[in-house]
User: Fold this.
Amino acid sequence: MKSMVILPSWKPDDIYPAKLARSAVSYQHPLGLLYIATCVQEAGHEVELVDGAFWTHQEVLDKVRRFRPRFVGVSANASMWTKAIKTAAGIKAIDPAIHVSAAGPYPSAVEEKCLVDCPDFDSAVIGEGEKTMPELLSRLEANAGLEGVAGTAFRRDDGRVHLNEPRPLIEDLDSIPIPRRELLGDFDKYESPPGSYRRKPIAIVMTSRGCKARCIYCFQMKGEHRIRFRSVDNVVREVKELVTDYGFREIRFLDETFTADRERAMELCRRFRDIKPDFSFYVSSRVNTVDFELLREMKRAGCWAILFGAESGVQKNLNTLRKGITLDQTRAAVAAAKKAGLKVYTPFIIGIPGETYEEALETVDFAIELDPHYANFHTMTPFPGTELYDNVEKYGVMSSNTDDYTFEGAAFVPFSMTREEIEQVRTLAFRKFYSRPGFIFKRIFEIRSVHDLKTVSKGAASFFWLWTQRNAASAKSGIPGKKTG
Ligand code: B12
Ligand code: SF4
Assistant:
């Protein structure tokens, strides 16, 4: 059956302030869509993957018009939801007989509510879609209804919305086919912010899914706080294929915590070194799961950078977030990673429930004390399906416009701060962190290649823009700026 999977059309300045968008934009492979498209193909269907990062809304619809699918799955997280609605409406206008399904983090969080919100969706795929999709398509092919297809919600003939049984998370991740990257078309169109990669082209891989921690702002599929791992052999097979067959030169491991199982991370690194594939890699981690020996092994295997969610410089606020880490663990992890020769990236959050203006300034000082290679200062954002979202009235005031749900817009203002204060701290944080003479000199002395030079100059251009703005980290939020508590 002819099927299409779509990421709706979006532009970087939907998320980032227009000028910053150029340096912050991240066009990464849409791994979720790739997994789904691969499974659909394996099940014997013809499939086309449309990544809306590269097409206007009309161009996406033109592709639907040309391909004439019987099924279209539209993927959305919270900030993409209004675009997904627009896409579904456009598809139905082309041909009302096309079955249109909503899927991805947002529909997974709000479940059948997304069908109530948007009459143009016939069904929703809730949670991981790899096992659900082939079942759903064979039902559609047989002109049978979706009654009983676990992990879906659908609209009955009488218009009423029905939620089927949930589908458990996939326990054996090795049973999922390795995504076929050729479904993406030309890899050159994918672009990453300067400084976020060493080599190109970049592939995206996940060696595990899920996280044990319970941060109040983080969305985890089915609200389950555990990790499922792929076997080391399965990961190594994918890495070999990516480097040898496809010619990728860098891999970004998107696992929530690449180092969650220390021995497995060590083993992966040893295997990467043994097979000597020519690639560099980047991981995300947690400060309480690393030590110098592990980080050194990672560096030897080709890792060049590591992200630690540092989040705050005030222990009370880390505790509010239920981050499960201490400031000293962050200090130790950042120091060990730097000693191992890795570049360190630490994102922080401004506007944590209960955080005062002065405490937010302490976070900026903490970032400067840690002195990572890159720091970002996001706003606290209550995504559907999180503890923060479900109990937001306990914590502050939330915007009802899902377009505000980027980490850049003040979608949430805690009772302890105003929106203006959040924006002020963010502006100050970027300026203070990136304009330190020591920081600038270090980056200049680290220039070893044309790529490094380009990174530093693009960063400098964005930084110059930041300086010229009254409010560099400007947010487009529906929340009024008055003191809320
Ligand atoms: C990589 C990533 C990005 C990349 C996106 C690259 C891309 N083109 O996809 C970038 C950096 C651009 C990004 C940006 C943002 N992201 Co992001 N991102 C992620 C991250 C780390 C991995 C996504 C991924 O590939 N996962 C692996 C795949 C296998 O899982 P998946 O995508 O969920 O797909 C599965 C299901 O959702 C479902 N599915 C998904 N699509 C479809 C489609 C069909 C047809 C079907 C049937 C099923 C299906 O099946 C898939 C396979 O099981 C996740 C966290 C995470 N671990 O998932 C956050 C996450 C998705 N991002 C999130 C957010 C909030 C954002 C931003 C808003 C943040 C910001 N900067 O402001 C922006 C929004 C950008 C945008 N335009 O949408 C949230 C979404 C929360 C929510 N409830 O909506 C997440 C969950 C992080 C979190 N834990 O809170 N992000
Ligand atoms: S540690 Fe990271 S991935 Fe895990 S729950 Fe917290 S924010 Fe989410």
